Structures are given as structure tokens and as C-alpha cells.
């Protein structure tokens, strides 16, 4: 291990995207491991930017010294969460106690918009930590190992974050038909370069921007003694197998069937938790009805998915965007809070913002 880094201060930055799951991770085992496999689309525009600045402490070891800023402000709640994550990572990243750390983070999308900020923020932080590890240990990883390690660390911050380390379509969770799959980290799912899947769009229809009444952790916890636990595990892994076939074969009907089944099953599980959790709003249901009606009438390839909240992600293809946008602006926007939606699309994954440091 190198000791070249003495009184230097180094700043590294990563921009990482959020993602939207088509097959949902819902329910976890110890070690933040998923009960079932999941698959997501990495977004392009909805991102978190995180800078990590570090300098060696006068005396190594002891407690982690960290300051955390969110949009320039100290944020107690997030700061505690990050500190407890860093503490849990000391065994894996022992150098963390040797440096003073300043973490500055910003999201470029509104809070509670139905876009998972924990996914992008934990992915950006994990990428910064692996970059820091390379610098302080002077061991530079081959690219594939770098991202695998970042995905493993991101998972420990937030399960869905492990998928945000890669662009395109990403899976997480061990299943037979994906050779590289693991419960520990996500892996990019190969898509034929000719496929329309490479040109997916996601229009996020904001039904309500109110603070979520359910944290992901309590939602996952509600699965632990859920009467449908086993059924859900089997259903999700089956859906993951089917959706990978749909992607491999460009079978858009199957893609929408599975995605919508997953979104509605997630809410069926929430509704049938004890006590039941109701996150859908009347306008969420109106939007679902309208999307299905429009698809039936036009034969266009579009589908919806919903996370643990009321907002609806309308997923479709770039080559049909011109026909779909009038439907969004004239029909669906009526059911959105202040007529608001956010336009995003499938993205290429995280980006290093600072020059590579090699001491
Ligand atoms: C419904 O990854 O936010 O969005 O691991 O507790 O941080 P934690 O949960 P989180 O759960 C995401 C749940 C979901 C589905 C998904 O993204 O797969």
C-alpha cells in the first residue's frame, strides 16, 4: 500500500444516473441482498453529482471524520445515513479512518418526483469511494472490476443503486439465464445494437410530488412476514426470465405485459401488507386506464411502470415519440400535478468528472 499521499488534498467527482426498474426488487435478506432478481433501465438526465475531497488526518485511525453537504447545505438526516454507511464499510475500506472526508452532493431532479434519488446518490458515492481506494492503495483495477466493486459498494448504500453503476439495461440478482448475474452486484444486460430497446424513452408523469409516506426500508421490511412472500419471489424471478427473453427477441408485447404486471404486483403487495400501504392515487389509476386505452386504439409500443409511489413512468421508443407526446401533453397531463411531467430516456451510465489521479 502506498504512502505517497501525504499532505495532499484530492478531489474526485462522479455523476451517476438514477434508474427505473421494470422487474422490481422488493424484499431483502441480511447484507442488503435481494429476495429476488430485478432489471432496470438506467436513465440519462436524472442524475446525482457527488464530489469527494480527502486529505490525510494527522493521526491515522479512530473514528471516521466526514462532512456532508447536500446542495451546499449540511443535511443532518442524509449525513447520518452516509456516516452509518461509511462505518459499515470500514472492514472493506479500512483507509476511510485515515482521511478527512468532505462529500458534496447534488441532484438535478426534484425530490419526490418518482425518481429514485437513493439509487443515483449511492452509486455516485460508491464510484467516488472506489476511485479513492485506487488512489490511496495505488492499485488500479481493470475497468470491469472497478465497476463491479462500485456496484457491490453501492448496493450496501441502497439496493437499487447497484444497478445505477452501469448504463443501458441492467440486472441484479442471481438467475440461471444470466451467466454473469449475482446477488452481490449488478451487471449490464447485453442488448442487440440494432434493437429499439437502445432508444427507450421514459416520461415521468408527476401525479403527486408530496413526500413519500413510505421509506423503501420499511417497504422492504413489510415483505419479511408478508403472506405472499414465497409467491412473490417465484413470480419476480419468473418475470425476470421472461423479460430477458422479451429484450433478446425484441418482443414488445411481452415487455409491456411483464413490466405492467410487476408494477401492479408491487402495489398489490403494498396493499396486502399489514397494515396495508396505499400509495396509488386516483389519478395514477386514470393514467393507467388512459395508457391502456391509447395503446389499444393506436397499436403503439408503450407501457407503464410505477415505483413505490403514485407517479407513473411512461416507457416507449424514440421512433414513436412524435405520436406519443401529443397524448402526454393533451391527455395524460390533465392527471398530473400542475400538468407536470419529466422527460428522460435510457442513458449510458455514470461519468467521472475529475481528471484521473495517479500518484
Ligand atoms: C420499488 O433500493 O430504494 O424502487 O435497498 O432499502 O435502499 P433500499 O431500497 P431501494 O428499493 C427500491 C425498490 C423499488 C424497486 C426497484 O428499484 O427495483
What is the element layout, followed by pairings?
Layout lengths: L8 E15 L4 E2 L3 E2 L3 E19 L8 E6 L2 E2 L1 H13 L10 E9 L9 H21 L5 H15 L11 E4 L13 E3 L11 E6 L10 H9 L4 H20 L3 H20 L10 H17 L3 E5 L5 E6 L3 H10 L10 E5 L5 E2 L7
Parallel strand pairs: 5-7
Antiparallel strand pairs: 1-4, 1-14, 2-3, 4-7, 4-8, 5-6, 8-9, 10-12, 10-13, 11-12
Bound molecules: ligand DP6.
The site of ligand DP6 has 17 residues, from α4.
Short summary:
This protein is 35% helix and 24% strand. With 359 residues, the protein is α+β, with helices and mostly antiparallel strands.
Q: Tell me the series of helices and strands, N- to C-terminal.
A: EEEEEEHEHHEEEHHHHEEHEE
CATH architecture assignment name of the largest domain? 2-Layer Sandwich
How many β-strand stretches?
Answer: 14
- Structural class label: alpha+beta
Helix content: 25-40%
- Estimate what percentage of residues fall within beta strands: 15-25%
Overall tally of structural domains: 2
Tell me, what's the shape? globular
CATH topology tier name of the largest domain: Ribosomal Protein S5, domain 2
Uncertain stretches of 5 or more adjacent residues: none
Ligand roster: ligand DP6
Distance between the termini: 12 Å
Q: From the alpha carbons, calculate the radius of gyration and give it in angstroms.
A: 21 Å
Report the top-level CATH class of the largest domain. Alpha Beta
